[in-house]
Amino acid sequence: MLEIYAVLVLLILCSLILIIFLAPFIPKPIIKITKSFLNNKQISYIFKLSFFLLLLMTINYFLEMRKFDSHTQIENTNENSHHTHADSSSAWTQSQIRKFRIQRNFYLCEFTLALQLITYRMLPLMKRIELAEKKEKELKKN
């Protein structure tokens, strides 16, 4: 069940990051309406909260990967001879599928975390550029 929520949070964060990157291509009236709803403190709070949640999910998946590796090592050393080959093959396949899902979610969390950090660092730079453009327009008017 945690995987569903993790994937949902990742999708939401990826869509938010995509919206932020597409912001320069959005028409000016829509940008003004959006800016009226959110101020800098709210955006910073949202970024910090989502960063914390992503960090928790990344740590959770890392611990699951370690737990899974220790369980597979114990299972490999304690194989019982009374299991049939089909049972052990099916169990091995299921464990590999679970391992793949855990690793996939871990790498998705890391990638989203990296994108979020890049976006968080780019927002002040974009605001500086916007202020510089406004000053340049004012100087041209004078």
UniProtKB/TrEMBL annotation:
Highest taxon listed in the record's lineage: Eukaryota
Pfam families: Bap31
Alphabetically ordered keywords of this record: Endoplasmic reticulum, ER-Golgi transport, Membrane, Protein transport, Transmembrane, Transmembrane helix, Transport
Subcellular location field: Endoplasmic reticulum membrane; Membrane
InterPro entries: BAP29/BAP31, BAP29/BAP31_N
Range of residues in the leader sequence: none
Membrane topology designation: Multi-pass membrane protein
Coiled-coil intervals: none
Main localisation: endoplasmic reticulum
Single biological process term from Gene Ontology: intracellular protein transport
GO CC, alphabetical: endoplasmic reticulum membrane
Keyword ATP-binding part of the UniProt annotation: no
Transmembrane intervals: 6-25, 45-63
Domain named BAP29/BAP31 transmembrane: residues: 5-136
Classification via PANTHER family: BCR-ASSOCIATED PROTEIN, BAP (PTHR12701), ENDOPLASMIC RETICULUM TRANSMEMBRANE PROTEIN (PTHR12701:SF20)
UniProt record similarity statement: Belongs to the BCAP29/BCAP31 family.
Protein task: May play a role in anterograde transport of membrane proteins from the endoplasmic reticulum to the Golgi.
Protein name: Endoplasmic reticulum transmembrane protein
Record organism: Anaeramoeba ignava
Organism placement in taxonomy: Eukaryota, Metamonada, Anaeramoebidae, Anaeramoeba
